[in-house]
Design goal:
This is 4Fe-4S binding protein. Keywords: Membrane, Transmembrane, Transmembrane helix. This protein folds into 3 domains: 244 residues, no CATH class; 141 residues, no CATH class; 154 residues, no CATH class. 57% of the residues lie in helices and 5% in strands. It has 25 helices and 8 strands. The strands form 4 sheets. It has a two-stranded antiparallel ribbon with strand order 1-2. Helix 3 packs across helix 10, helix 12 packs parallel to helix 15 and helix 23 packs parallel to helix 24. The chain is globular. The two termini are 50 Å apart.
């Protein structure tokens, strides 16, 4: 994958270079090159006037470099298709910007700060990360969506056809990614700054069509697109995670989805994105007064694009509106965003009313997820009704119809498998492996499983079977519950803080109290203190804070005894008592 990323990055840099010097591709777009599918073909696309108009003016048909057409009408649509089908994990592993943002880490020149080691009291340096509770950590979705809106507006105004402006824009993006990679560790560029990140959230949802499901894998593993390096000794991949975001989209995308479903800006991203898709393509018609301007790809070689930012912004059915293009673009964006944002919230309420009327009321979170899913499918279908069409419409009819059918099929399959999913199902699946381990310890009668093995049971069947434990002694229930919590912690499915809420339903089924959970944490802390010593920037309840503090204290004492040569086990019982 390292080599693949280098090849893709060098190819991208070569494309950027072509924006400044390209003596080759204009020959493919020459009007007289009848063998080229990339020339403008008015006999297929246009009205009898045989020209592409911007308002009442025909655009001259002349050779043009294809760099902008390749970028906007081929590469960008391919990225959207990859996100829904193969998921963010594939995209982030091949994304050149994500790759280039890691250059400072690879060179060992990231910004560092001095901190006091809580175990030894010594001063050491560490890389800087963006805190989850910082302003940017809480509000990054607003920032990224704002950059996304500005970027699309800038595309229409400056970079659609001006190859030099597009080249400078992409170079600036590369420099920004490298700068963020220097200032902050991990994938801070991807998580907190990249305008493409909201698009990834929309199209990935809880899981992509063919992407992996990290929560089903036996931990610990290097899952999905998490940060990784090759160990110089073992030559194997190992984690390079610095906890720049919890929960991390690159480690477990579905966990991130359910955890941040109510995060500030999440609805704006999901509902506003559909408005942006509609507004972006609609504006081509509102500006030129016809659809030929967009579907022929004439916008990729419009002359003097930058000088036209103050031209008439709206031309609707032969009537000009005296609003500059610079303002008209963002008026269109904001109106459509407001419409789809309002529509999304209204549909959430209507869906809850409908399910209540049908006698199967859903929670606000489940209603939000259902409407999110519908909006994602609508965004996907709307995007490919227009996105890439300047290239696709040059294909013969049968391949074009096949591609259209593929888009409908893929979107429908994603909608079908995502709509009915909920957080409880994810949590049951996440705990299934841990529950199986505890059930193995019980040596259950094989007749209870009807001849099947525990590994053959679905997550729902395993979870239901665990309820049998309620008939056993309190000691066995506590032992099983502690084993499950410890296994979840060892696999990094939860940390000490989030385990309380994550295991709430399990406590109810096993008739285990909240106080028993904290007792289980203290038991785990005494026996396996390293599990709980990973630093997390999370809010802790007073009880959980005491339990984690105990774990850290024990870990510090044990490690100190190990370094001083004394037997750590000598003080173990005293610490535990």
């Amino acid at each position: 994958m390292h080599s693949v990323r280098w090849v893709l990055t060098l190819g991208w840099l070569l494309l950027i270079f072509s924006f400044f010097y390209d003596p080759i591709t204009p020959m493919f777009t020459h009007p007289d090159n009848l063998a080229s599918p990339f020339r403008l073909r008015p006999e297929i696309y246009l009205d009898p006037i045989k020209c592409v108009k911007i308002r009442e003016t025909c655009m001259p048909e002349q050779p043009f470099a294809m760099g902008a057409l390749m970028w906007w009408a081929m590469i960008v649509p391919a990225g959207i298709f990859i996100l829904l089908v193969l998921g963010h994990e594939f995209w982030r592993r091949i994304c050149p910007l994500s790759f280039l943002s890691q250059i400072p880490r690879a060179l060992g020149i990231q910004r560092r700060r001095k901190v006091i080691d809580p175990l030894t009291g010594e001063i050491r340096s560490e890389v800087v990360t963006i805190g989850e509770n910082s302003w940017l950590g809480r509000n990054h979705l607003y920032v990224q969506f704002g950059l996304f809106v500005l970027g699309l507006g800038g595309r229409i105004l400056f970079t659609n056809s001006d190859r030099h402006m597009l080249g400078f824009f992409l170079i600036g993006s590369i420099l920004c990614a490298i700068l963020v990679g220097y200032l902050y560790a991990g994938k801070s560029w991807c998580h907190y700054f990249c305008p493409m990140a909201p698009v990834q959230l929309v199209y990935t949802g809880p899981r992509s069509l063919l992407g992996s499901q990290a929560h089903l894998s036996q931990k610990p593993i290097i899952s999905q697109s998490m940060c990784r390096i090759v160990d110089p000794v073992t030559k194997q991949e190992r984690s390079a995670c610095v906890s720049c975001k919890m929960p991390c989209f690159d480690i477990d995308a579905e966990k991130n989805y359910w955890t941040e479903l109510s995060k500030p800006g999440r609805r704006l991203v999901q509902y506003g994105y559909l408005g942006m898709v509609i507004a972006f393509y609609l504006y081509y018609f509102l500006y030129a007064g016809n659809w030929d301007y967009y579907f022929t790809g004439a916008w990729t070689h419009e002359e003097d694009q930058v000088s036209k930012v103050l031209d008439t912004g709206f031309y609707i059915y032969g009537h000009s509106l005296p609003i500059p293009k610079l303002i008209a673009v963002f008026i269109t964006f904001f109106v459509l965003i407001a419409i789809t944002f309002t529509l999304g919230q209204l549909l959430e309420r209507l869906y809850r009313l409908y399910t209540g009327w049908r006698g199967r009321a859903v929670t606000a979170i489940q209603a939000q997820h259902a409407i999110f899913t519908i909006f994602t499918a609508a965004s996907f279908w709307t995007f490919f009704s227009y996105g890439a069409r300047p290239s696709l419409n040059r294909m013969p009819p049968m391949p074009l119809l096949a591609f259209n059918a593929l888009i409908v099929l893929v979107g429908s399959m994603w909608l079908y498998r995502t709509f009915g999913r909920d957080r409880s199902q994810y949590e049951r699946e996440s705990m299934a492996a841990s529950l199986r381990k505890q059930l193995h310890k019980l040596n259950l009668d094989a007749s209870l499983l009807e001849g099947r093995e525990l590994e053959d049971l679905s997550s729902d069947e395993v979870y239901t079977l665990v309820k049998v434990l309620s008939e056993f002694s309190q000691q066995l229930r506590l032992q099983s519950y502690t084993g499950v919590v410890q296994d979840l912690l060892e696999q990094n499915i939860v940390d000490a803080t989030s385990s309380f809420d994550f295991c709430r339903k399990l406590r109810q089924d096993l008739q285990v109290s909240d106080a028993d959970h904290f007792a289980a944490i203290e038991t785990i802390a005494a026996m396996n203190p390293d599990i709980l010593t990973t630093p997390r920037e999370t809010q802790q309840s007073p009880e959980m804070h005491d339990a984690v503090t105990l774990a850290k204290t024990i870990a510090k004492q044990l490690r100190h005894r190990s370094r001083t040569g004394s037997d750590p086990s000598l003080g173990h019982n005293r610490d535990r008592n």
